Amino acid sequence: MSAAHHPPKPVSAPTMSTPQEGDSAVQALAASIYIHLVKDAVTIGAADAGGNATITANAESLAKISYKLAEAFIDTGDAIRASAKPKTAVFDVNKMDFGS
User: What angle do the packed helices 21-41 and 59-84 form, to 10 degrees?
Assistant: First the structure.
């Protein structure tokens, strides 16, 4: 007697939330900042001495700082743009005195 054959259960792909546009901007800016910070933190020795590379900072710390700087930069830009928008004055014609 043969064992019953059960078709494999479908496996759903892991779900990932789609990053918001702001998240993408923060990530792109953080990556750019990170590259600059790492570039400044890495020292490459002379080729005749073996060309060893040394990094003077923790890479994970540089990544965290990069994200914090990127978020601060974008938040500040948003605040500046929001304060520069024209303000709408509220005008109530019923409070006007047309008799004088």
Answer: 130
DSSP assignments along 17-76, one per residue: PPPPHHHHHHHHHHHHHHHHHHHHHEEE--GGGT--EEESS-HHHHHHHHHHHHHHHHHH
Q: What is the pLDDT of residue 2?
A: 47
Angle ∠(79,80,83) on CA atoms, nearest 5: 85
- Alpha-carbon distance of 41 to 54, in angstroms, equals 8
Q: Per-residue b/e over 57-84, b at no fewer than 16 CB within 10 Å?
A: eeeeebbebbbebbeeeeeeeeeeeeee
Residues 6+ apart with CB under 8 A from 57: 37, 41
- Indicate whether this model's pTM tops 0.90: no
Question: Tell me: the pLDDT tens digits for 40-64?
Answer: 999 888 777 777 888 899 999 999 9
Coil, strand, or helix at residue 99? coil
